[in-house]
Amino acid sequence: MLKILLLHAALAVGLLAGCNRTQPSAPTATEFAPAENQIRSVLATQSAAWNRGDLTAFMAGYWQSDSLLFIGKNGPTYGWQRTLDNYRRNYPDAAAMGQLTFSELRVTPLSPDAAHVVGHWHLRRPAAGDLQGWFTLLFRQQNGQWVIVADHSS
């Protein structure tokens, strides 16, 4: 019986030790401020590019990878090029694109190299009618740059 108790104690200690591995914690607001500023800058650069009618420059804010995830009203799309192609199909010219604004941004650090962003988007399109909705973004820092790796917009 003592052997069984010792075995159970050893297993419990092993399990607790495995659960106690440290994960990178989310940075404090002060530590994350420079990254948050960079993320907000990416979004400002994107809206400026959109408002110029430059979809390629707008897409510079996204991870240029086949693993980029964009979820819109038609479901998930994977890949930077496919996402760009969808934007081009849905917004063929500057009039269809309108003027984009982002508001109510909430940037939350997840780790030193990841952040979650929630916000509101609005397209002012006098000829075609305004559009608006909400988005959730996952940003990752890749090669020193903050990029969107997942976008769920509705």
TrEMBL record:
It comes from the Bacteria. The keyword Signal applies. Keywords: Signal. InterPro entries: DUF4440, NTF2-like_dom_sf. Residues 39-148 form the DUF4440 domain. It holds the Pfam family DUF4440. Residues 1-17 form the signal peptide. This is Nuclear transport factor 2 family protein. It comes from Hymenobacter koreensis. The lineage of its organism: Bacteria, Pseudomonadati, Bacteroidota, Cytophagia, Cytophagales.
